[in-house]
Amino acid sequence: MILAPTIMLIPTAWATPAKRLWSTMFAHSMIIAIISLIYLKPAAVTGWSFPSPNMAVDQLSSPLLILTCWLLPLMILASQQHTSSEPINRQRMYLSLLTVLQALLVCAFSTTELIMFYVMFEATLIPTLIIITRWGNQKQRLHAGIYFLFYTLVGSLPFLVALLYIQIKCGNLSFISLTLTPLTISSSLDGTIFWVCCLLALLVKMPLYGLHLWL
């Protein structure tokens, strides 16, 4: 419901005349943000709403989807003056990267497959890295981008190993099926290691001292 309009923001960024670029992108993104409020609807008896073969929304993902949609118009408002002195094609590229970032997050928060969540969540590294290295305010933005790439890749590998472990134990990585297939771990130590592997990839992207030094 919001993925297709979000993707349409990319051709909008390149087809809109320069004088109306930022106002059009802001209006389009605000419409998407308002539409996203439909996800406040209570979940169905099964716990999932708006189901499709590979995507659905539950009580945990719906506020994250809404937050993602409302961040884009706010980023457009905050960035307009900062990029106003740049060539128009760079402004269009910047808006396109923000759009790609939102589309990837929408896919990550609405997927019903763990491996798809991993792919989409880690794919946000690409537009984020370009934005940091090209439009960062500080002179050390290139070093920050390298640190960001290193921390994210290293932190995500244990998460991938944990997903493969779930695949071996349960036979699938579907959120819906996993609720019916309890995961059994042999010892408490293995459970702690498994928990750390699953959490590390998310901690790297949070402002935690020791894991966020690239910022």
Brief digest:
It comes from Taeniacara candidi. This protein is mainly α. The protein is built from ten helices and no strands.
Radius of gyration over C-alpha positions, nearest whole angstrom: 19 Å
The main β sheet shows up as: none
| Unreliable sequence segments | none
Averaging pLDDT over every residue, what do you get? 84
State which percent range the strand residues make up: under 5%
Number of extended strands: 0
Question: What's the tally of helices?
Answer: 10
End-to-end separation in angstroms reads 34 Å
- Helical amount among residues, as a percent range? 55-70%
Descriptive overview:
The protein is an all-alpha fold and about 220 residues long. The chain has 2 domains: about 1-110; about 115-215. Helices cover about 65% and strands about 0% of the residues. Helix 2 (about 10-15) packs antiparallel against helix 5 (about 90-110) and helix 8 (about 140-170) packs antiparallel against helix 10. The longest helix has 30 residues, at about 140-170. The mean pLDDT is about 85.
